[in-house]
Structures are given as C-alpha cells and as structure tokens.
Amino acid sequence: xxxxxxxxxxxxxxxxxxxxxxxxxxxxxxxxxxxxxxxxxxxxxxxxxxxxxxxxxxxxxxxxxxxxxxxxxxxxxxxxxxxxxxxxxxxxxxxxxxxxxxxxxxxxxxxxxxxxxxxxxxxxxxxxxxxxxxxxxxxxxxxxxxxxxxxxxxxxxxxxxxxxxxxxxxxxxxxxxxxxxxxxxxxxxxxxxxxxxxxxxxxxxxxxxxxxxxxxx
Length: 217
Description:
The structure is a single chain. Helix content is 29%, strand content 24%. It is α/β, with parallel strands linked by helices. A 7-stranded mixed β-sheet has the order 6-5-4-1-3-2-7, with helices on both faces. A hairpin with a 2-residue loop joins β2 and β3. Belongs to the small GTPase superfamily. Rab family. One of its GO terms (biological process) is protein transport.
C-alpha cells in the first residue's frame, strides 16, 4: 500500500477498465466521473482512452483510479485483454434501452472471470437511466428491467448500479462502491503494479477537451 503524508494517511492506486458494447455510454460515464461533464454527441472511442480520477473515501483514505476506457466496436475486441490484464477492477456497461447490450455485458463478465485477475472487482452498470423516466414529454424507453439485471449481478457476484451519465445519477456512487470493495488494507506491490504497470498507449483525456469518446449518454 502506498502512503503519502503521515503514516495514518492511505493513498492507493488501482487500474480500472470499462467494457461493453459500442454506444452504451462508457465514455460518457467516465467523462461525468472525471470532469463532471456530459456531451450529447460524442465520437466513438478508437482503441482506448486513458483518464485518472481520485476518490476520498474518508479523511485518511484516498483511492486513485487509472482508467482505461475501451472501444466497444467488435473490430477492437481482440485488443481488450491488453487493457483488462492486471486490472484491479472493471465496470461492464450496458444500455437499459437495448436488450442485446446486456447479453454482450454478460459475455464480458464471463471473459473477465475466466481470464482477468482472479481478485478483480467487477461492477455491472445499466446506463441511460434518464431514458427510463415517464413524463409529459417523454415515454420510458426501458427495455431491461432492474430486477432482472440485479438478479443476474447478484448471481454472478457483481456490484450493480443503474446510472445516467446525462444526469449524473449514481455515477459517483458507482465508483465509490468499487473503491470501497477494493482490498485497501491488503494492497501490496502487486496491486500497485496492477495500477501502474505498462500497458498499451491510449488517448489521455485528462489533457484535452478534444477527446475520442464513445457516443451517447
């Protein structure tokens, strides 16, 4: 475990990867989490993009996420192992208005459980929750029931949240829950390397507003 300042202050770094079908809103979730921003129209991610963000769990504990936001297009699928290799945690995203995206998410979960770090913390995120709201100007577009996805997540041993990158609902809560699930007290050199280890190059989205992003909320 890495420390800064006094011996009572804990500062831990973890590698996090986002996976899911194209256009489910992976990049928008990350942008909301890192910069508290949302754009209605974003270009698809090419390969992967890299960002960082920290969370203060309490006065004595800070977690830094080194985030790899992967492209969802099928032609980039073979590159995914380079990004989830040695990852400490993963967010697998689906679109609550697109049933096929949950099937794809389940396939990613199986792949992670089979090939990634055996102690990886996996969260399932049903994105675009804002499209589930009924109102005078909008009819719910929900196609995947919360209970069904939640039951699958429970059976698979996953954290589960429904989120909206557009409204920011449950975005911070999602990443905070992951941080709390990580083994902060047991983190050793291997965990640090998992966060800092060499990986493929990506676009560092912390440095510019002109980013290569996945589309939609």
